[in-house]
Amino acid sequence: MTQRAVYKNDVLDAAPVMLKGYFSVDKTADTFLYLLFFNRGVAFVNGFCLSRYRKEGPQSSLYVPANLLENGENTVEVFETEEFKEPVVTFKNYIDLG
User: CB 79: neighbour CB atoms within 10 A?
Assistant: First the structure.
C-alpha cells in the first residue's frame, strides 16, 4: 500500500505553515508516514500527534497505528517550521529506519 496525500493551501511559500491534506483508506492497517519533502516540524493524523520529524533523522518514517485510521476519508496535517520542497507526504506499508 502506497498512498500520497497532496495538500491544498493558499500560501505554500511561507514558513512556518500548517498544511492539511486528505487521503482515503479502504481497510485500516499499520502504516508508515514518509515526509521526504519536508525539513522540520510535527505531523498529525486524524488530529493525533504522531511525532516531531527532522530531515536529518534519526528516522525516515513515522509509525501510524491502524487504530488511528478510519475506513474512508482521513486527514494528515503537517506543521512545517522551515522551508519545504513539495507539499506531498506518502504512506507506505513498510518502515525505513534510515
Answer: 17
> What is the per-residue pLDDT across 45-69, written as a single tens digit (0 to 9) for each?
999 999 999 988 888 899 999 999 9
Give the tens place of pLDDT for each residue, 71-87. Answer: 999 999 999 998 888 88
**Is 89 within 8 Å of 40 (Cβ atoms)?**
no
What distance in Å separates the CA atoms of residue 10 and residue 92, rounded to the nearest whole number?
Answer: 27
Strand order in the sheet with 31-34: 2-6, 88-92, 31-34, 61-64
pTM of the full structure: 0.84
Q: How many CB atoms lie under 10 A from the CB of residue 92?
A: 14
Which among 51, 39, 48 has a CA at the least distance from the CA of 75?
48
